[in-house]
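Action item from last meeting closed. Structure (218 res):
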């Protein structure tokens, strides 16, 4: 039996979505003065996004919009799921000060990082422009997990008031993957209800990954 996605878990997810709704932006992430932003501030904000609408500067800032075509997952709904069993949780927080060996894909970290228990950590996958190797590594993990269950929920996150999780969720959904969610509260929100664990970044070498990107290999 697959260790991913049990019917009970999916039923709990569906029920819990009514608590916040996938299109509802969390109160913490909405700037209090959003409706009174002046023209100069609006121009400054537009400079923080690329031509495709992804945030590419000042990532640590309040998030004021949905990651369509992905959707926001309410924290109470996310906490009903067991990461690694009922859903694939992916942390995209950068490895601050870390150095990655392109040949092996391994990281030398400058500081310890803690994440949601059962989540995988793909540093830098929410940055724009993204490193194509790191992004394809994240996509490959989703594809591999969905060989076991085609509609496995995938939940992207980083920190509260961080655009990298938003970027990654939006991009993954825009590339045609379904059942993609963004957890706005991220690591800090989860920590309020339970402990975090020390994370190890996923090692992704600079090599051809086409075999991992085929969801139904022969």
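Sequence:
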């Amino acid at each position: 039996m697959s260790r991913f996605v049990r019917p009970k878990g999916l039923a709990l997810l569906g029920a819990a979505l009514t608590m916040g709704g996938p299109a509802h932006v969390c109160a913490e992430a909405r700037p209090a003065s959003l409706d009174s932003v002046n023209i100069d501030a609006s121009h400054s904000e537009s400079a923080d996004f690329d031509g495709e609408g992804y945030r590419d500067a000042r990532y640590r800032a309040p998030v004021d919009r949905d990651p369509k075509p992905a959707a926001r997952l309410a924290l109470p709904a996310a906490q009903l799921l067991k990461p690694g069993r009922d859903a694939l949780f992916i942390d995209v927080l950068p490895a601050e000060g870390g150095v990655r060996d392109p040949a092996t894909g391994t990281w030398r970290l400058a500081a310890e990082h803690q994440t949601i228990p059962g989540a995988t950590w793909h540093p830098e996958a929410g940055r724009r422009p993204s490193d194509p190797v790191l992004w394809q590594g994240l996509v490959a993990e989703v594809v591999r997990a969905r060989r076991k269950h085609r509609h496995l929920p995938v939940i992207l996150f980083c920190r509260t008031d961080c655009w990298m999780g938003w970027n990654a969720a939006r991009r993954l959904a825009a590339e045609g993957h379904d059942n993609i969610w963004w957890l706005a509260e991220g690591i800090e929100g989860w920590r309020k209800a339970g402990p975090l664990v020390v994370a190890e970044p996923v090692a992704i070498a600079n090599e051809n990954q086409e075999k991992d990107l085929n969801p139904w290999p022969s």
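Note appended to the action item: The beta strands are 71-72, 88-91, 99-100, 107-108, 114-115, 120-121, 154-157, 180-182, 197-198.
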